[in-house]
Amino acid sequence: MPQRETSAQNTLGLLREIRGLMAGEEKVQARLDKFVTVIAGKMNVDVASIYLQRRGGTLELCATQGLDPESVHTTRLKSGEGLVGQVAYTARALNLADAAGHPMFAYKPETGEDKFRSFLGVPMLRGGRTLGVLVIQSAAARIFTEDEVEALQTVAMILAEIAIEDERASDAAGKLSGIRLSLDRPETYSGKAFSTGLVYGKAHLHVPPMLAGALIAEDPHAEELRLEDGIKRLRADVDVLVSGDAANLTRASKEIFESYRMFAYDRKWVDRLREAVHSGLTAEGATERVRNEHRARLQKARDPYLRARLHDLEDLANRMLRILSGEKSSGSKLAMPENAVLFARDLGPAELLDYDSDKLRGIVLEEGSPSSHTAIICRALGVPLVGRVSGVLDNVENGDVVLLDGETADINIRPLETVQDGFKLRMGARGELQKAFDALKGKPAITKDGRPISLQLNAGLLVDLPQIDISGADGIGLFRTEFQFMVSEFMPRLEAQTDLYHKAIMAAGDRPVTFRTLDLGGDKILPYSDPVPEENPALGWRSIRIALDRPGLMRYQLRALVAAGAGKNLRVMFPMVATVDEFIAAKALFHKEVQRASRSGAELPTKIEVGVMMETPALAWSVNAICDHADFVSVGANDLMQFFFAADRDNARVSDRYDVLHPAAMSIMRFIAQGCERHNIPVSVCGEIAGRPLEAMCLIALGYDTLSMSGTGIGPVKAAAMNLDAAKLRAFLDPLISIHSRLNTVRDHVKDWCEKEGVPI
Ligand code: PEP
Ligand code: MG
Q: Cα 25 to the chain's mean position, in Å?
């Protein structure tokens, strides 16, 4: 038998024995003792030792076969000290024929290791952390073979998982003296609050770690085939992404997909996977192991480019794991415990809706953006979301207690009891505040100077509809029809569309519902569509532009809207209109559908109003002209502001670089409101700013009487509006937002004004 095969057989034998030991009932220490005996025997060496990392990074000898047993729990090395410390610090294997000759060698006489010349140490990696170091030593001076290094790395990874599992299962007496491998220290992170609320819950990782049992291959040959098949499918997947068929489907830029492809075809990455499977791991185990190695190394990198590559590799590994698991079966909800706080790098709206919203209490993302559709859905569901929490995934495990503060954007993981108590008090106070908002539910929102304000709901899915009554909204000011398309696996048929629109109208009763026609393209993408690749999708062929060039889909939708509105008032508006002609053309298509329904003898809506979304600066400057044609105007401030400031709403680097309370932004909002008022055309705001009390007060002051927002915004905005003298704030704002203003924002000025005027915010 060739030498390589023999060593593979040995490794398999070793892994089988380890699996056998896993089945026993031992405590952590007893199991570690058995592991080192088996490792030394099977790898044919004189010494096998396990060093585990204590808090602060000190490595402690916890089990040994071959060194002096007296040194167990006595010999310790500081982080970076000696060869063992070096392995832990670099997260890389160290393979030496003559250990004592290495400049980092630190002699520990109590171990009796001076007899042993050769040294092989490998890190015990789990996630991005190094839990300890596994070492083998021999009296003979020799370099260990590549296969031996590989085998020891595989064993080290499995030991890391087992040690964690054992530790969790042990009672206090069964744990290793003073060493805690699981994450147990409280950690605090800060991010950006994208959806407010306080949550006391348990962490649930979107991509969970694997159990040790699932790492060891039953049939190595079958695993090799599975891996090869997985690699082939992964490459095909990534090729599709890069080829552009799907390049517009996510916000990730083409560059990211290119780097995925680079990794997917990278010989080294694939060879590492193959070697890991060859050493006895399952295909999943191999993926996990290679990922751990990259994480542990790249995590130390400060260079943002390298850290971004780490993310790419993570994504690729996750994709590979999904491919290997055969993906979840469609239609089923993903499992999650009660009171879960979901942790993920990023999460698309469809992925979010894969979870059971009854159990989901909050979300923490390493990335994300405030106007992404995931954030919008979270606000609709009343699920707090904190995004841009860099590095949080390295320090959280399934089941950790989490305090998520969607107001200050702070996350406490494994908090101390006292911190938990303080948080509970705040939750109680917030509950009181919520009760105060609830008490306002039946009351009209009338400002102190007597202006009635209509506060409406932004919705789009069936799950949003109960919010109308829960929040006491005065109607649905924006129904985002594309959400139904985005979360379906197939294009929704006419009946399904009609059904949803009808349900929305029924849920609102006699309150108005404003449907927006499909707003696709840009950040809104369909899983089943075949978009044309574009350099700059936000400014590309999207929304009404698609609808006018290829009217089939929109006519189909308008047909559904006309049918759903039979016998009721029907309000429809068109998104992303840049010129008055576009609006006139879209309106003509709508009337064709009304005529069609009329010809077929179907019952028609009793009243039809056709409006426009004001979300391009060009249309804002055409406010007088559009008012001659539209029945109402709704300002889509999310898009209007992204185009106004030329700052991508989904790009974390720029999306909150400019404040919507900048005098220039405020004055364009005032210009639109004044234009509509002159023409007696109702105008509202339905972007996210409408749901924030301070911004909402400014909008009311500038002349907006209708604001549409997520359900959670209605109580706070109503409370603010009812305490506001809008004319007084207008008088205060006007000079601040004059064209000569040099301010970057009027936010602090308005806050001070509120304080002086006793307006609570
Ligand atoms: C907007 O642009 O402000 C808006 C309400 O539409 P969406 O967020 O769906 O683009
Ligand atoms: Mg928009």
A: 39
